[in-house]
Write a structure and sequence with these properties.
Layout (H helix, E strand, L loop, with lengths): L1 E3 L3 E2 L11 E8 L4 H8 L4 H8 L4 H22 L8 E3 L5 E3 L8 E8 L2 E8 L3 E7 L7 H7 L2 H9 L5 H19 L11 E2 L9 E2 L6 E7 L4 E8 L4 E6 L6
Helix pairs in contact: 1-3, 2-3
Length: about 250
């Protein structure tokens, strides 16, 4: 179900990520200019080049903050300076750690939308996360027909009109998080599997590998929805507030 997440401040001490737990972080990307300058120093040359390609200053700042926060959080989990965290981008765009120094892989994923970012971390299991702001102008029948399965379109049409925008973005985030967990991009067509989307109802995945995954939906902040896909099992989700000044 879509649950309203209870975001807390993380302890100042070393972050512990137990088996069977996913840590989910929320961060505002709208920070003072001085903070952007400080965070920009944490990026490597490739990331700085990517930031420079943004035409709009706000988009450039959001990318810098989003990537720097990722590095700061990884540094805390790996017990090292963020500058020594080495990342690589896989064939279909998923960012992963370049090396595994822990013996147990630290998996992570991130998403951002309209000045808000979320990050998810766990050990030993692939995962994907997606975040979207609820935008009625996007939640159209035309877009649903392009990307949703027949069953999803039927479920969406059956909802009261007042629930269709939320239902649309429930489907979108759940499907995107599933695809991101696989790390294969649009090699997995969005209409090749089904997710349920009715607000307030349990999330059901219908795919060839549905027994391998678990999808959770949550509300990170008003007018946004988010979804996490992680390996099958019962997971404890801990929600943390990322303050850039504290990381």
């Amino acid at each position: 179900m879509n649950s309203v997440a209870n975001w807390i401040h993380a302890p100042d001490s070393l972050l512990r990520l137990p088996e069977g737990t996913v840590h989910i972080w929320r961060a505002s990307l709208d920070v003072p200019a001085a903070s952007v300058v400080r965070l920009n120093t944490l990026l490597n040359s490739e990331e700085s080049q990517r930031a420079d390609r943004f035409v709009q200053e706000r988009d450039r700042h959001h990318f810098i903050v989003c990537r720097a926060v990722l590095r700061l959080l990884l540094g805390r989990y790996l017990e090292r300076s963020s500058s020594t965290v080495h990342l690589l981008t896989q064939q279909f765009g998923k960012t992963v750690l370049a090396i595994d120094d822990l013996g147990i892989p630290l998996h992570f994923n991130l998403s951002h939308s309209h000045g808000l970012a979320i990050y998810a971390f766990c050990f030993g299991h692939e995962l994907g996360v997606d975040l979207e702001r609820l935008r009625p102008e996007i939640a159209t029948e035309e877009i649903a027909n392009r990307f949703f399965s027949i069953r999803e379109r039927q479920e969406l049409a059956s909802l009261p009109r007042s629930a269709r925008v939320e239902g649309f973005f429930n489907a979108w985030t759940r499907k995107e998080s599933y695809v991101k967990a696989h790390g294969k991009g649009l090699q997995i067509p969005l209409d090749s599997f089904d997710v349920t989307l009715a607000p307030g109802q349990p999330v059901i995945l219908r795919s060839l590998d549905s027994d391998c995954w678990r999808i959770y939906s949550f509300t990170p902040v008003e007018n946004f929805t988010a979804a996490l896909t992680v390996g099958a099992g019962e997971w404890k989700l801990d929600f943390y507030e990322a303050e850039t000044s504290d990381l």
